[in-house]
Design a protein that fits this description.
This protein is α+β, with helices and mostly antiparallel strands and 193 residues long. The protein has four helices and eight strands; from the N terminus they run αββββαβββαβα. The protein has helices at residues 7-31, 78-91, 133-139, 155-171, and strands at 38-48, 51-56, 62-67, 70-71, 95-103, 109-116, 130-131, 144-145. It has a five-stranded mixed beta barrel with strand order 1-2-3-6-5. A two-stranded antiparallel sheet has the order 4-8. Helix 3 packs parallel to helix 4 (155-171). It is elongated and about 85 Å long.
Length: 193
């Protein structure tokens, strides 16, 4: 009393296998954009000073993006929290254009990012139509250059990043601020040993 397999069954199995392969391919292509793909959307989350989540303009996909060329401290320290808060002010709720370049080991898209600025934000002062949040984070001392993915930026932008970091270091801003020395009262007998 076994079941007989006829030609219809083999056609069905081949069709099911082909459909499974097609489904995997479609999911892979829509889940992670190809190199140099462009995503335009609104930033909805900023977990640290170098990463954010974009809701694509179509509203159908979320993308975790890491800013190409910078490394920000984790938000488990005072400077890490300041770095995250700085990036939040720059990008949260705003429209960004992301040119994806790669996927990092954590599965984040590495991208060159531009914040599309509303002229109302400039409050009468002249300002650029687009803002590079990576450059702003470096200039404020809330990130440092990450040489492992700096090459995704143009040569001109790499020079700007280098200059911003040199200036932040010289100004002892953010990450480059010297650690405060403990007060004499912080030592057990009033002096360091």
């Amino acid at each position: 009393m076994g079941t007989k397999s006829g030609p219809e069954d083999s056609h069905f199995l081949r069709y099911a296998s082909d459909m499974r392969t097609l489904l995997v391919l479609v999911l892979a292509l829509t889940a992670c954009p190809a190199a140099a793909d462009v995503i335009v959307g609104r930033v909805i989350e900023v977990p640290d000073g170098g990463t954010f989540t974009v809701l694509a303009r179509e509203g159908t996909s979320l993308h975790r993006v890491r800013l190409a060329g910078i490394e920000a401290p984790k938000p488990n320290s005072a400077i890490g929290i300041s770095s995250r808060d700085s990036l939040r002010k720059l990008v949260r709720g705003k429209t960004v254009r992301v040119e994806t370049s790669a996927i990092d080991p954590k599965g984040l898209l590495v991208g060159v990012v531009q914040v599309m600025r509303d002229p109302k934000e400039c409050t009468g002062a002249p300002c650029e139509e687009r803002l590079d949040p990576g450059l702003a984070q470096l200039a404020a001392g809330f990130a440092k250059i990450d040489k492992s993915n700096l090459a995704f930026q143009s040569e001109d932008t790499q020079r700007q990043y280098d200059s911003a970091q040199v200036h932040a270091k010289a100004s002892k801003t953010g990450l480059w601020r010297p650690a405060p020395q403990p007060a004499r009262a912080d030592f057990r007998y009033g002096e360091a040993r």
